[in-house]
Amino acid sequence: MQFGIFTVGDVTTDPTTGRAPGEHDRIKAMLAIAQKAEEVGLDVFATGEHHNPPFVPSSPTTMLGYIAARTENLILSTSTTLITTNDPVKIAEDFAMLQHVADGRVDLMMGRGNTGPVYPWFGKDIRDGIDLAIENYALLRRLWDEDVVTWKGKFRTPLQSFTSTPRPLDGVAPFVWHGSIRSPEIAEQAAYYGDGFFHNNIFWPASHTERMVSLYRERYAHYGHGTPEQAIVGLGGQVFMRGNSQDAVREFRPYFDNAPVYGHGPSLEEFTSQTPLTVGSPQQVIERTLSFRDYAGDYQRQLFLIDHAGLPLKTVLEQLDLLGEEVVPVLRKEFANLRPAGVPDAPTHAARVAAAAAPATTEEARA
Questions:
Q1: In what residue span(s) does the Luciferase-like domain sit (predicted)?
Q2: Which of 17-26, 27-36, 133-142, 194-203 is least confident?
Q3: C-alpha–C-alpha distance, residues 289 and 280, integer Å
């Protein structure tokens, strides 16, 4: 199982000081956070993609390429790549290039984002959101899987005998997660291709996450990729920790109350009781995270959001120390002990290259 962090890259005023970082400072902080994630032994760093203030990560592959040069083991991912408004040709080429730069330590998460105005900014219509996601991804898969592509669709100009460059590293495209909070069509898409499904598991109650993950698992089996238990699932989560829970709640409360996403709404206590947000001690984070298995089943990737709402870099780095030293080692052991035989490991480039090179079974050869 893989553990890591994801960032939305918000530039938010620290409510305890009244100061907001500049864009340069926030970008540099994200780079420092990623390098710290490797230092403390996490597996994954993922960045969102946004094209509007107060967010800064408009060019994820630029950021991840920089991080690749300064890390050795960290898997570099996106927590949203906008499949609706990015051109599939550019996605294919950008992420294949990043694969080569990072020696395969790359995957990505397709999503539609949550900023409606992004569609006209890139010449698209939000009413076509689902159809764009479906058509664009179908083309992207062909661009990675086929050396020469001739294609015609509804939303972009046709392609005639086109080859995207560079080709995927070792002939194996980056692994793709499809991220969705509320769209069953995206869970269906992930299942159809046998890709991973990621639920951000932040704003919704467990019952909603359970329904979305169950749908994906059922459809994954329907399309013949394996049993429901063999589907590849990732979950998000949001945590803030101190040595004891009272200190964590007291310190985090002003950040929660003024956060641009959920501030000035439900109380911290209401939000933590109704969603997976965990504010407390490392042991409380361990227990809460282990409980995700009760409604999502055995899964492959857990990412935590820890750097939003104006939290200063020093505090975020302290959170990473707690994750690396006290939380993740226990979660690795406990999840491994609970995992039944037959549940697949989290996908890696090396494992997928080996699987692609393995001799076909008799049944596959006949097919």
A1: 1-294
A2: 194-203
A3: 12
Q: Could you identify the residue written with the tokens 């999503």? A: 111
Which two three-digit tokens encode residue 169?
């590293």
Using DSSP, state whether 198 is helix, strand or coil. Answer: strand
State pTM to two decimals. 0.94
Buried b (16+ CB within 10 A) or exposed e, 111-135: bbbebeebbeeeebeeeebeebbbb
- Report how far residue 212's alpha carbon sits from residue 217's, in angstroms, rounded to the nearest whole number: 9
Q: With bands split at pLDDT 50, 70 and 90, how would you rate the model's confidence at 21?
A: very high
Token duo for residue 352: 């997928």
Q: At what angle do helices 282-296 and 328-338 cross, to 10 degrees?
A: 30
Find the DSSP H helices in the chain: 23-39, 60-69, 88-101, 118-121, 129-145, 184-193, 206-222, 245-258, 268-274, 282-296, 313-322, 328-338, 349-357, 362-366
